[in-house]
Description:
Layout: H1 2-16, H2 18-25, H3 36-67, H4 71-102, H5 105-128, H6 133-165, H7 171-199
Amino acid sequence: GHRRHGRQRRDCLAGLGPPYLGAMSSAPQASAVQHGSFRLYLGAIVLGTLGIQIQGVAIAWQVFRLTRAHTENAALALGAIGLAEVIPFVAAVLFAGHVADTHDRRRIARWALLAMSLLGLVLFAQSLLRLEAWLQLTLLYAMVTLGGLARSFLTTARQAMIAELLPRELIAGGVRWRNTLFELACVLGPGIAGILLWLGGE
Length: 202
């Protein structure tokens, strides 16, 4: 009676195969963006990356304006911007990773962002002053170098922070969200900077 009926039901379910059983056990998949703290994290990445990209274009434009009278030096001066940022970034990234592993990552990110904001204010202030061209270039390269150093700490802390915001099963999806929005901001930032320069009459 009951035993035979139970066996028949199990045989019926087995005959229907995995799709039927999967449909019975399927549940809504959790998403990384359902976590409010992770959404704030993504927003900070987008806004910070946009700001960095816009600032980078502004610096390159100012260097070009200061050196375009000497066409033989203009290309070298523009290329030196990248070197001034990359060299301290690469030189400090291993130490920054060690610091991120042994200290509060959120605090590291906040201090790095504060440092970069202060450097941005210095860059803005020097653009308003009528300084000699060589002095402006010296300040620009110094600020770019310090900015690259701050970015090494920001980047390592920010990448490691995702493990503190999401459960383990959502980290892979969170990394995809982070990388996608980061790349999007890297593309949009220079375009926005160009529009701002155009609106400013440059």
